[in-house]
Amino acid sequence: MLILSLTYTAPTEQADLHMQPHLDWVKQGYERGWFLASGRKVPRTGGLIIAKGDRAEIEAFVAEDPFVIHRVAAYEITEIMLSTVIDGLEKLKD
Length: 94
Fold this sequence. Notes:
Blueprint: E1 2-8, H1 12-17, H2 19-31, E2 35-40, E3 46-51, H3 55-62, H4 66-69, E4 73-79
Antiparallel strand pairs: 1-3, 1-4, 2-3
């Protein structure tokens, strides 16, 4: 499992200019079966995506995010191996 932590490197007004293309990119991540959950940080300093799949493929995909291309955000990617989950989320441990 991968935690994709996105932090704005430019004012949110600049990020907003690229928000729809970024959301389209996020949708592609879900369609590919990589993204499991996503949302904004509070306060709004970026966002977070929980992903599952091949790290190299996901890293290459992250490089295609319009936020990255237009240099309004940067990602920190953390890989985790879940050992415990609540009932119903066992598939996350695979």
